[in-house]
């Protein structure tokens, strides 16, 4: 896996990342840190990427289990260390799994498998942060 990050050259702290798959992601800093608030902060991108990684796993596992999953949302809130490096110290993941006739035990299993076996991002963040998972099933 590869990526390249370049300073945009604009006044402030805007950066553009180009991923190995050829996609671009813009990032910026907060105004009080020299940024212009034109894009998400780098740590917000890390958090969002982790949510996408685990949601991807949950949907894939549920589909393979024969579940009629229609949507999966993950709402996350994170706490960070007060001192640099300001790593995540706690991340709450709340899954909203939407579908028809979803079996609660299979939803539980999918979330657990994602966290314990498949999601590389949450495995990394779990080295510095307490990860808390909750969920609700919404009938569609």
Automatic annotation (TrEMBL):
A Pfam cross-reference name: OsmC
Superkingdom, taxonomy of origin: Bacteria
Cited InterPro entries: KH_dom-like_a/b, OsmC/Ohr_fam, OsmC/Ohrsf
Protein name as it appears in the record: OsmC family protein
């Amino acid at each position: 896996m590869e990526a390249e990050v370049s300073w945009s050259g604009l006044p402030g702290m805007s950066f553009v990342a180009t991923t190995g798959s050829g996609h671009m992601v813009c990032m910026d800093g907060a105004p009080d840190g020299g940024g212009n608030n034109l894009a998400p902060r780098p740590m917000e991108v890390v958090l969002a990427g982790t949510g996408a990684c685990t949601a991807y796993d949950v949907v894939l596992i549920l589909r393979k289990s024969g579940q009629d999953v229609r949507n999966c949302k993950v709402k996350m809130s994170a706490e960070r260390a007060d001192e640099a490096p300001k790593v995540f110290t706690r991340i709450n993941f709340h899954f909203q799994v939407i579908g028809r006739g979803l079996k609660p035990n299979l939803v539980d299993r999918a979330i657990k498998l994602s966290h314990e076996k498949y999601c590389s991002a949450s495995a990394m963040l779990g080295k510095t942060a307490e990860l808390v998972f909750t969920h609700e099933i919404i009938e569609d």
